[in-house]
Design goal:
about 110 residues, alpha+beta, 4 strands, globular
Length: about 110
């Protein structure tokens, strides 16, 4: 089964005309990753100027991918689960959001504003 969103395997700089950018990394067999994909779709549909970048890796590759992302995303030192969600439109500005629950909380806060 394919993810419901387009997949960007590079996670490079995204357009940023007053936009908020979120990145969802994980493996598709993880139900929390799929939940985050749905939250990302809801954000794109309901919030103006929001971009969602999705990176899907194989389950076996997840530990190495997570370790690599911890070296480039601020605040991820204690993150151990799938998915990894972070924000920022440029690699130098990436900041940890959390997993699917934190991402949902972020969406609910922004949507109710």
């Amino acid at each position: 089964m394919k993810p419901p969103m387009s997949v960007n395997t590079n996670s490079t700089t995204m357009e940023q005309n007053n936009e908020e950018c979120y990145h969802i990394h994980g493996y598709y067999s993880c139900p929390y990753f799929r939940k985050s994909l749905m939250i990302g779709e809801a954000m794109k549909e309901n919030l103006i100027n929001t971009q969602i970048d999705v990176v899907t890796v194989d389950r076996d590759a997840w530990p190495n991918h997570l370790a690599r992302m911890k070296t480039v995303v601020t605040g991820t030192a204690d993150h151990v689960t799938c998915p990894l969600v972070f924000e920022g439109c440029n690699p130098g500005s990436w900041k940890h959001v959390g997993g699917s629950d934190e991402f949902k909380d972020r969406f609910m806060t922004k949507f109710s504003s």
